[in-house]
Design brief:
Blueprint: H1 2-21, H2 24-27, E1 35-36, E2 39-40, H3 41-62
């Protein structure tokens, strides 16, 4: 019971962190004309963060 509660709390914290990092003030920092290997910076940020959140969720659940 305690482990399930701790896992739930970690998932909620990860959700809130992802929500903050994908919200306006931080997301606007990556809306620039720069590109790496032809890919705009905002795309790399959004999809990289998305992949990181999914990987962290899997790690939290499997732990």
């Amino acid at each position: 019971m305690i482990k399930a509660t701790l896992t739930g709390q970690r998932l909620v914290a990860l959700f809130l962190l992802g929500w903050v990092l994908l919200n306006y003030p931080i997301l606007s920092m990556f809306d620039v004309e720069r590109a790496w290997l032809g890919v705009p910076a905002i795309y790399l940020y959004v999809f990289g963060l998305w992949a990181a959140v999914i990987a962290l969720m899997a790690w939290i659940i499997e732990r």
